[in-house]
Amino acid sequence: MATRFQLLGAVEARAGGRVLELGHRRQCAVLAVLLLEANRPVTAGELVNRVWGGRAPQRDRETLYGYLSRLRGALAPAGDARIIRRASGYVLTVEPEAVDVHRFHRLVASARKIDDCLAALEAYEEALALWRGEALPGLDTPWLNDRRDALDRCRREAGLERNELALRCGRQARVLDEMSAAAAAHPLDERLAGQLMLGLYRAGRQGEALDCYRRLRTRLADEVGVDPGEPLRSLHRRILRADPSLAAPVARRVPSQVPAPPSTFTGRAAELARLSELAPGAVGVIVGPGGVGKTWTARRWAHEHRAGYPDGQLFADLRGFDPAGPPVPAAVVIRRFLDALGVAAASVPADPDAQTALYRSLVAGRRMIIVLDNARDSAHAAPLLPGAAGCAVLVTSRHELVGLVTAHGARPVALGTLGDDEARRLLAGHLGGDRVAAEPAAVRALLRHCAGLPLALGIVAARAAVHPGLPLAELAAELEDAATRLDALDGGELAVNVRAALSCSAEALSEGEARLFALLGSAAGEDAGLDAIASLAGLPAAATRGLLRGLTAAHLVAEPRPGRWHMHDLVRLYAAERPGAAPDRPAARRRLLDHYLRTAYAANRALAPLRDPIDPGPVEAPIPSEARATAWFAAEHANLLAAVAAAHDNGLDTHAWQLAWAMATYLDRHAHWRDQAAVHLTAEAAARRLGDRAAQAYALNGLARAEIWLGRYEQARAHLRSALELLDDPAGRAHLHRALARSHARDGDPRQALAHDEQALALYAEAGHRCGQATALNAIGWHHAHLGEQEQALRFCVRALALHRDNGDRPGAAATLDSLGYIHRRRGRHDEALSCYGQAIELFAEIGDRYEMADTLINLGDTHAAAGDPDRARTAWQLAMSVFEELGVPSASLRSRLRPAGNLSAR
C-alpha cells in the first residue's frame, strides 16, 4: 500500500486513499523534518533544535522518543516508510517520489535537463502542480521557517523558468493567467513583469502589456522612489515600436567544449543537486583530493544542464596538479576561449589585459557553462571568471580556493569518497553485473581496499576489464597486503596511478606539514582531535592547528566535524611510506598513546570515581565532568580500540592493559560488549607478556564480564577460574566471585550465584571494601528475590541501599533501587515498586548508563501493566525500545511483550 506524503500544503500522509493520523502539530513537525531529510540521518539533538527551536521542553529527549515511537505506529499500516535508528541518527526511509517536496525538486531538475522545449514545459508544470498552498503550514521554528522560505524561493524560481520556457515555445497562452496572478502577488518583481509584458504582447494584447509597465513604473516610483531597470525599459520601448526581434532571438556561435563524462559515472546525486541550486552567474567550486572524481562530476553536471545554457560550453584543463608539467597560464586559456567564441585571429588584441576584456565582453549577456578544471589556486582561476552574471562557472581544485569564495562569492562543493553501494555500481558499470555478482566476497574486499576512491576503483576495474579471465579474487589478494596496496593501484600511466595522484599534493607541503602528514599516516585510529594530534606531533595546539589547516586545504586530511580530522585509508598508506619525512615515528606513537591513556584514565575517574584505581603513570590529566567524559569516550571510541591494539603490537604492554581498564566503564554503560571483549583479550595477552599477575587477573575479569553480557557463560567462568589462580588479595578475589555470581544468575541459577556472592561479601568485609560490600549485599538480595525469599531479599537490599548512599555510589544505588522495585512488584506493592524504579531511572540517566536505564524502563512498564495501566506501560516500553535501538541492542523480545515476567537479569 503506497504512502504519499504532502508538505507543500497541509502536512499529511495518505496510504491507500486514507489519510493517516499523524498526531498533534509538534509531532507533525518531527515527521516534517525527517521527510525533508528523507533517507539521511538526523541526530536527536538536531531534531530537538529543529522541532522546538529555543523552546524545547525540560525532558526533550524523552518527549522526542515518544513522538518518534507514535509516528512509527502511525506509519506502520503502509509499510513502505519506516523511521529507523542508526549510529548517525534517525532516518526516515522512503521512496523520494513519495514525498511531494523531493518529487518537486526532481521534476524541476529534470525539466532543466530536457532539450525538448515542450517536454521541459510539461515537467515544470507537473512540478508546480504539486503545490497546494503554503509549504509546512503552521510549523513555526527557525529551521522550519528557513526551509519554508527556501521552498518558496524554489517555487518562484521554477515558475519564472517555466514562464521563460513557455514564451520560448510560443505557449504563452497556457501560463498567462498564472503570470498575471503571480505579478499581482509580487508587484515589484521586474523579471516577472517583463515575462508578463512579453506574453501579453505575443498574445496580441499590446495595450495590456503597456498597462502592466505603467502600473509597475508608478508603484516603483511611489513605494521605492526608483524607475524600472534598463532591461524592462528597453522591453517597453521595443513593445511600443513592435520590434520584430521580440519574436526572433539572434543566433550566435555556440561552442561545445566540455568532454562527455564517462559512461560508468556513478553517484554524486547530492553534490550534483547542490551545484544545480546555484543561481545563474554563480561560481561553483568543486574541491576534493586527487582521484576523487572532481573532473567527472563537473563534466556530468555540464552535460546534464546544457539545455539551460543555450549559448554553449567552454572547458579548460588548467593542469594545476599535473605530474607531467607545469600549470597552464590563464592567458593561454583566454586565447583558446577567444578562438572558440569565433574571434578571428586578426581581431585578437596583442595585450593580454585587452584579451581578457574582450573575453568578458563576449560572454556578457550569454548563458554559457564554463568549466575550469584542476586550478592550482584562486589566482590561477580568477582571471578566467566572466565579468557579468548569466554564465554558470565550475572550478575544480585540490585546494579549497578560499580566495574565490571570499572575493567572488563562489560556493564550495566538497567531494568525498563513494559509499559502498555507489562504489559497487561503479565496478558493475565497468565489468558488468554478472561478473560482479559472481564473486561477492572478492568484490567486498576490493571495495574495502579501495575505500571509495573513484580513481582506485577505476584502476581495479580497468585491470579486470583488460583481463576478462582474471578472477577478481586475485586482484583482491594483491590489495590485501597494505604494504604493497599502492603498487597494485598503479595503472601504468601517470593519470591512473594513485601514488602519483597523491604525490602532486604532498610535494607542495611545507616541511612542518610534510612531517605531520607522515606522522598521521602511522597513527592508530580513524579520526582524531586536536589534543591527540598535538601530542603525536609534540607541538603546541595552536601550531598543530596551523599545520592541519594546510593539510586540509590540500585535501590530504579532512575535517568532517569541527575539531576532528580524518585521513582516507589510501592517503594514510601513502603518508606512512614517505621516507625520511618523520624520523621520530616511534617517539610520536608513544606520545599519542600516553595522551590517550592519561585522558581515558581521567575520563573514567569522572564516570566511576569509586572504582578501585590503578597507577597510569606520573602525569595525570585533569578530571572532566561526567558529560564531557562521556562525550570524549564517544568521540574517541574507535581510536581507543585501535590504540589498545597498537600498544600491544609495539610492545607497550602497560599501555595496552591500562587503556582497556580505562575504557571499561564507558563500554559497559553503552552496551559495547564485543569491543569490551576484544580490548580485554588484548589486555590479557599484554599483561601475561609483562608477567603482571594482578593486571592479567583484571583483564580476565573484564573479558569474562563481556562474555557474560554476550551470553557465553561457560567461557566467562573459565576465564574467572583462571583469574582466581593468579590472585591472593581479598578484594581482587571478591571481584572475581562477584563476576562468577553474575554468570550463574544470568544463566538461570540463582542458588549458585548466591553462594559466590556470599563469598564475595566475606572477602570484601575482610578487605574493608565498603563499595564492594554494598554491591554484594544488593546482589544477595536479588538472588533471594529470584528464589522466592522476598523478606530476606528486602532486608539485604535495604542494607545495600543505605551503604551505597553513605558511600556516594550513584550507580550502586540505582542498581539497588531497581532490585527493590522488583522485590516490591513480586510482593504486590506496585506503588512502592514504581517509586523505586522511577528513582533508579533518574539515577541511571544522570550517570549516562543508557543500557541499565532502558532495562529499568522495561521493569517500570511491567509494573504499570501489572497495576492495570497499559498506556503508561506502553510508553515505558516504547522509550526502552528507542534506547535499545540507539545502542544497537536487539529488542525483538521487547516487541513481543518484551520478555517473561520472571526477569533473571543479574546484579
From TrEMBL:
SUPFAM superfamilies named in the record: C-terminal effector domain of the bipartite response regulators (SSF46894), P-loop containing nucleoside triphosphate hydrolases (SSF52540), TPR-like (SSF48452)
The molecular function terms of the Gene Ontology recorded here are: ADP binding; DNA binding
Q: Superkingdom of the source?
A: Bacteria
Start and end residues of the TPR repeats are 814-847
The family assignment reads:
Belongs to the AfsR/DnrI/RedD regulatory family.
Q: Name one Pfam family in it.
A: BTAD
Kindly state which keywords UniProt assigns to this record, in alphabetical order: DNA-binding, TPR repeat, Transcription, Transcription regulation
Q: What is this protein called?
A: DNA-binding transcriptional activator of the SARP family
InterPro entries in the record: AfsR-DnrI-RedD_regulator, BTAD, OmpR/PhoB-type_DNA-bd, P-loop_NTPase, Sig_transdc_resp-reg_C-effctor, TPR-like_helical_dom_sf, TPR_rpt, WH-like_DNA-bd_sf
Q: Can you name the source organism?
A: Paractinoplanes atraurantiacus
Q: Where is the Bacterial transcriptional activator domain?
A: 99-240
Q: Does the keyword Phosphoprotein apply?
A: no
What are the residue boundaries of the OmpR/PhoB-type domain, all occurrences included?
17-92
Biological process terms in GO annotation: phosphorelay signal transduction system; regulation of DNA-templated transcription
PANTHER family registered for this protein in UniProt:
TRANSCRIPTIONAL REGULATOR REDD (PTHR35807:SF1), TRANSCRIPTIONAL REGULATOR REDD-RELATED (PTHR35807)
